[in-house]
Each structure stands twice: as C-alpha cells, then as structure tokens.
Design a protein that fits this description.
The structure is a single chain. The chain is an alpha/beta fold. The chain has a single domain (3-97, 166-246), classed as 3-Layer(aba) Sandwich (Rossmann fold), CATH 3.40.50.300. It has 10 helices and 10 strands. The chain has helices at 43-49, 80-86, 101-111, 117-130, 134-137, 150-162, 180-193, 206-212, 230-235, 240-246, and strands spanning 3-14, 17-28, 32-36, 60-68, 71-72, 87-90, 168-172, 198-202, 215-220, 223-229. The strands form 2 sheets. A 6-stranded mixed beta sheet has the order 6-7-8-3-9-10, with helices on both faces. A 4-stranded antiparallel beta sheet has the order 2-1-4-5, with no helix packed on it. The radius of gyration is 18 Å and the shape is globular. The two termini are 32 Å apart. The mean pLDDT is 96. The structure holds adenosine-5'-diphosphate and magnesium ion. Residues 43-44, 172, 202 line the site of magnesium ion. Adenosine-5'-diphosphate binds at residues 14, 17, 19, 37, 39-45, 57.
C-alpha cells in the first residue's frame, strides 16, 4: 500500500515546549492507523498538524516536513482550504452545528459552492448512508441535530466530514464520550469506511486499536517510539516502552 501522508523529521514547539520530536512516519492509504500513548504525548498535536489546524495557534513553531500525496503541506502554494477539505476531522466530543440535520451535512458542500437542491439532497442522503445513520434520521432531516443522542451526533459529524468528499479522516478519541453500543457502531463504520478513505484515529482504548486498526503508532513524550502492523505492535513490540504501555504499566 502506498503512503498518503509522510512526515519527515517533524518537530513542533508550543513556545518553549517541544511537543513533537523528530517524527518520521509514512501512513498507508485506505487503511486505519491508530495513534496510542499516554496523555500529553503529542497525539492530538500530530493529528492536527496534518491539516494545518495548528496554524491557528500563534506560538506554534514547526520544523521538518509533511507530505500529503507527495506534496509538502507547508509550501506557500498549498491551498489550506482544499487541504482541509481533503483531510477532514472528527473530534472527541460530538460537535454538530446548532441547526437542522440536513443543514449540518449541506454546510460544507454549500461553502464549496454547491447550490442545487437536488445535488445537495443527494449529498446529504449519501453522506448519511455512508455514516450508517440514514435510517435513523431520514424522517427528521429538518429537526435540530442537537436533539440526537451522543452516538448519533458523532455519526452525524462523520457524515458531515464525508459530505465534502475527503480522502483522509482524522478522528481524535471519537468514541471516548460514547456508550459501548454507540462505540461499536463507530468501530464498524470505520472498518467499512477504510475501503474508500484513509483513517487516522487517536484512541486510549487498546482493545479498540486491536479491533479496528491495521497499523499502530506508539507516541511517548513527543517521540514516535514504534510504528508497525497492529498485530506485531501488540503481540511482539520491539521497544520495552511500547510493551510497558500496552500491558498497562503506565499511562
Ligand atoms: N495549544 C497549546 N498550547 C500550549 N501547549 C500545548 C497546546 N496544546 C497542547 N500542548 C502541549 O503539548 C503537549 C502534547 O499535547 P497533546 O498533543 O494534546 O497530547 P495528547 O493528545 O497525546 O494528549 C502537551 O504537553 C500539551 O500540554
Ligand atoms: Mg489528545
């Protein structure tokens, strides 16, 4: 499988604090990559840098490179809006916009210039179907999205991410606020989505990483300690620190 995202000697500081230290990683496309590690080790920072969300924080300094489809994402010629359309994000806490279910999904496509009602209807339906929530909401598309349960809201947020036809979906602990049934729905959904999309997911749940990911990256104190096939990382880690973490000795 070919790498869709490639970080080379990547370093990031928040002021004086270095949050990422010389990260080198190539993420294969159309697969699920899990990012694991104790709190504060740089997982969210790494995720956010991939679509340049850290641009919004003035104290951030970055050294090194990230290539997306072979293109340096820090190049002046890069259009950040189109980068963020290609690389979408789903957060820990479901964050639907306070508007109708329909408008949540149509929001991104509208911003990108799609106007026709028929075209929007189609995008809304397909996105909700792809996010495995269509059947639950098809009769209440005009109702406020905030009336949905937490698990439904998270699938709605996934549908919203899918509506602009991304290539990569970043998920930062997307199930940590959800009950077990909603969690397993999101896990099943992720497994289905990886046929078409590259998924990078931060998780604190080791079983979840084992259940759904193809590859796992273990971060510790800003360093990428180990990256490889999930079954290898969990059955035969090369680094003692990885072993300590996955067996629950810290973090
Ligand atoms: N906006 C910020 N300003 C300053 N420091 C930050 C900011 N965001 C994260 N950090 C620091 O960077 C380090 C990595 O944080 P983070 O990427 O959120 O870790 P994780 O997601 O693994 O818990 C931590 O030391 C954290 O305190
Ligand atoms: Mg985090």
């Amino acid at each position: 499988m070919k790498g869709i995202i490639n970080a080379k000697n990547l370093n990031l500081w928040y002021g004086e604090t270095q949050a990422l230290k010389n990260i080198n990683i190539e993420i294969p496309e159309k697969s699920i990559t899990a990012l694991i590690g104790p709190s504060g080790c740089g997982k969210s920072t790494f995720l956010k840098i991939l679509n340049r969300m850290n641009d919004l924080i003035p104290i951030v300094k970055i050294k090194g490179d990230i290539y997306y489809n072979g293109k340096d994402i820090f190049e002046k010629s890069i259009d950040v809006n189109s980068l963020r359309r290609d690389i979408g994000m789903v957060f820990q806490k479901p964050n639907p916009f306070p508007m109708s279910i329909y408008d949540n999904i149509a929001y991104g496509p509208r911003i990108h210039g799609i106007k026709g009602k028929q075209r929007l209807d189609e995008i809304v339906e397909n996105s909700l179907k792809d996010a495995a929530i269509w059947d639950e909401v098809k009769d209440r598309l005009k109702k406020n999205a905030l009336g949905l349960s937490g698990g439904q809201q998270q699938r709605l947020c996934i549908a919203r991410a899918l509506a602009v036809k991304p290539k990569v979906i970043l998920m930062d602990e997307p199930t940590s606020a959800l009950d077990p049934i909603s969690t397993s729905k999101i896990e099943e959904l992720s497994l289905k989505l990886k046929d078409k999309y590259t998924i990078i997911i931060v998780t604190h749940n080791m079983q979840q990483a084992v259940r759904i990911s193809d590859n796992t990256a273990f971060f510790l104190l800003g360093e990428l300690i180990e990256f490889g096939k999930t079954e290898e990382i969990f059955s035969n880690p090369l680094d003692k620190r990885t072993e300590n973490y996955i067996t629950g000795r810290f973090g």
